[in-house]
Design a protein that fits this description.
By secondary structure, the protein is mainly β. It contains 1 helix and 5 strands, in the order E-E-H-E-E-E.
Length: 64
């Protein structure tokens, strides 16, 4: 199981970029922390989620 923003999901073996796209995140307006470290955007397509990972995903919005 992978914990994303506090929710346990069965995503082990999945690619981070695929999960983010399926979850509706705009990849250019999101930041991801995996196990306490920021994942560089260039690595989203190479990052394979593993059992026990803890991710925090933050989407940025504009406005005023």
């Amino acid at each position: 199981m992978v914990r994303i923003n506090g929710t346990e999901l069965d995503l082990a073996g999945r690619i981070l970029a695929d999960y983010l796209a399926e979850a509706g995140f705009n990849l250019t307006r999101v930041a991801v922390e995996r196990n306490g470290e920021i994942v560089p955007k260039r690595l989203y397509g190479e990052t394979i989620l593993t059992d026990g990972d803890a991710l925090e995903v933050v989407g940025f919005v504009g406005g005023g």
